[in-house]
Design a protein that fits this description.
Number of helices: 9
Strand content: 15-25%
Structural class: alpha/beta
Number of strands: 8
Radius of gyration: 16 Å
Shape: globular
Order of helices and strands: HHEHEHEHEHEHEHEHE
Length: 203
Amino acid sequence: MSTQTAATLPCGVATGLHALHRAGLTAGETVLVTGANGGVGIHAVVLARLFGAAVIAVIRSAEVEDDVRAAGAAEVVVAPDGAFHRAVRAWAPDGVDVAIECVGTPTIAATLRSVRSGGRVAVVGNVDPSAADLGLGLVILKELSVLGSSHATPAELAEAVELVSSGRLAPVIARTFPLEQAAEAHAFAEHATATGRVVLRAV
């Protein structure tokens, strides 16, 4: 595979893979992915669909809706204000089985309200972690499993390599920048209209 493709694997692909494993996703379940057009989120959508789940994706901008649907989302909710649980429950009345929380504080409250009783939430994103309200009342009453999810294991990275090299998964690259334009790359990645992983090229 190309070095550009390989650069997406440790974080963009394998982090989402690890989160799905942490949450124990199985075929036939429903999964919510927040920040679904981001570098981790878009690959969580692709992987969840590949594993036989039905995916509902949450994004901030309608401009990326087609990209997220093309990645495998059965339903897409545009929620620039982070309020989406009613839309999710309209699609999955009992709530989703699993949530992959790729954002953090801006979406965690709605995510907890979107998951069924006894469901699982894998928390990957940490936007403004000091302000997070975990909503312990919901966690207790709904008996939710809230799981921290960090980077992938060596075995999961090997699994990601196999998925890509076998052609079962194609990493989504939003844009590639030369290394000297790292500041511009960071600015681009912050836009809600970028889909996939941003890659820096050294040479």
